[in-house]
Please model this.
Amino acid sequence: MGTFSVSKRRARNLSVYVVADLNCKEVREYMPEISVVMGVYNTRDIHSLDKAVNSVLNQTFGDFEFIICDDCSGKDYITDFLRDMSERDKRIKIIKNEKNMGLAASLNRCIEASDGNGKYIFRQDDDDFSVPDRFALQYDFLENNPGISIVGSNIALHGENGKWGSRKFPEKPKKEDFLFGVPFMHGAVAFRKDDLIKSGCYLTGKETRRTEDYELLMRMYSLGYTGCNLQDELYAFREDTEAYKRRKYKYRIDEAIIRYRGFKMLKISLKGAPYIIKPLIVGVIPYNLLNFMKDIYYGRREKTRKEPTYK
Model:
């Protein structure tokens, strides 16, 4: 991987922490090095949430705490599920917002609640899933590359009918890679905790309702922190028809604002001028045409036709 170092040791098997009757005191005494953070809000598909949570619990690297923030979902089935999972595996800590605060604020609460001796913050979204050795590989990478603050990976794209494509990210993202979009998959990244905290964690507010990762990563790069993407597919991202339809145009306006501010922080405003309006243009492209463009870009037509076109 170029000048980067990746340990050949694939994982540390700490399956002792999966034992259902292990108590919190014993876990705390171990002081986990990794804190996994997830926000949950009114998940429509409890099966996807179950798969996401278990993809974390079944990692080959078991030295972690798993902090889940229920963003005032108001759904009994979500509350019951999270309570049941936390009772079965004491690595899970549940916190709950008294009112809906958004993903950025929820993740900040998770970070604040994380073990003070932890070294890394790992992300996981509630409707995606990680492959079993994701944590092991990213942990080893960070341990062996102290100058890197962020590590992500390539991803598999999946929808109602399973995997339909893949998405590659640049191995060593540069500032200019933020022009076209976020050169990391948010749910697949791991941060050095100290560097994340020094950067100010997630910015909360109207403009970051759907762009909290974009803003944070550009800010970290503007402060001199850098990242890398492992070129394995270590994460499966849910990208389907309904996900596209949920992207309201007001969020695209917010993204344009974040792009303007971020490009200015990165000192690439001159190059970035045409890219600031990209989300506004994409937002008016008809579903069928955009789907066709994605087919070509991600090579979906050559791989499978199971995923339905946007209607």
In short: Residues 6-28, 300-311 have pLDDT under 50 and may be disordered. Residues 15-240 form a domain with the Spore Coat Polysaccharide Biosynthesis Protein SpsA; Chain A fold (CATH 3.90.550.10). Residues 21 and 292 are 51 Å apart (CA to CA). Residues 249-266 form the longest helix (18 residues).
